[in-house]
Amino acid sequence: MIKMSTRVIKVGNKLLGGNNPILIQTMADIKTSKVDEVVKEAQECEKIGADLIRFSVLDDDDIEGLKIIKRNLNIPIVADIHFDYLLAIKAINAGVDKIRINPGNIPDKYLKEIVFNAKDKNIPIRIGINSGSYQIGSNPDKFLNELESYIQSIERFGYNNLVLSIKSSNPQITYELNKYASYRFDYPLHLGVTEAGFGKEAIIKSTVALAPLLSENIGDTIRISLSESPIEEIKACKYLLKSLGLKNNVPTLVSCPTCGRTTVNVFQLVRKVDLLLTNINKDIKVAVMGCPVNGPGEAKDADIGIAGIDGNFMVFKKGKIIFKADEDKAFNFLKDEIEKA
Question: Is position 2 within any domain?
Fold first, then answer.
């Protein structure tokens, strides 16, 4: 089987699919009608590297919220619609850049009106199917046949401005379904593991599914779903793409696991540096080390780093010590050097 090259879809000011960069997206975790809170969160997401942001749409108040949110962001916004086809139409007319609908809860009989409105505005439709909405079972072909039938229901209205997403809470199923889908369809694929959970376990589950797909050039946009802040989702996506060599403007943070030689609080320091790097969009390797053996010695390939022993800290560049002081002064010096780099 040969993977099909995906077609290119325009989503607001972004291009999705083809040979374009993989887009990072997240979803707001505040009700869309709470405009001030949502805009603040969305602008922070945009600042640290989100390419798209999705918003839930539950009622007409959310529709009004979308109009204001759209005016306050520079990146595309996506309306997430379930059950009520009229909200999909209202969201399109409110100016969103893409809508997401779920075949599991929007019947075919309402598709025509949604599609005609999307076609009029040239708004892409993401067909998003989760394992909770469909019984996937052990036969991917049967499931993909159902998806193909839904795609054809839209195509028969003369519209093919589509994005597909096929998610399961099981990473192996997510991998298999998206791999098969990449052979059968040329629409861009949105990758993710649904209901992945919280913290390290959730990131590991998502990585198990997404890393092999992305390594096989499958996938055009990703979300790592976490029961945490959207900021954490974006950071996880950035680090995954950086680790796979698919995104360059992301810092690399390395730190020692600590041992009996450690006499400073590496865990506290590395968290401070990690927070500092959240808003840094550049290719720089930063090291945080707990003793002179690891830094600047073993971390000499880092662009810049910090190491400490018995309350005394040093900042180094490419293994060469450039500054010595207590922790606060050394950290502030490190911060200035990173921002100047």
Answer: no
DSSP string, 163-189: EEEEE-SSHHHHHHHHHHHHHH--S-E
Residue 107 to residue 227: CA distance in whole angstroms: 29
Domain membership of residue 4 (yes or no) is no
What angle do helix axes 230-243 and 35-48 make, rounded to 10 degrees? 20
- Give the integer Cα–Cα distance in Å for 121 and 178: 29
Angle of CA points 39, 43, 45, to nearest 5°: 120
pLDDT tens, position by position, 168-213: 888 998 999 999 999 999 999 999 998 877 888 999 999 999 999 9
Which structure tokens are listed for 17? 């699919």
pLDDT tens for residues 39-77?
Answer: 999 999 999 999 999 999 999 999 999 999 999 999 999
35-48 and 60-71 helices cross at what angle (nearest 10)? Answer: 40
Residue 51 maps to which CATH number?
3.20.20.20
Which amino acid type is present at position 52?
A: L
287: domain CATH number is 3.30.413.10
Please enumerate in sequence order all residues whose Cβ is within 8 A of that of 151, keeping only pairs 6 or more positions apart, or say none. 127, 162, 164, 185, 187
CB atoms within 10 A of CB 332: 12
Structural domain boundaries, residue 31: 9-243
159: Cβ contacts below 8 Å, ≥ 6 apart: 115, 118, 119, 125
**Per-residue pLDDT tens over the stretch 94-131:** 999 999 988 778 877 888 899 999 999 999 999 988 76
**DSSP secondary-structure letter at 108?**
G
Burial of 172 (0-12, 13-18, 19+ CB in 10 A): exposed
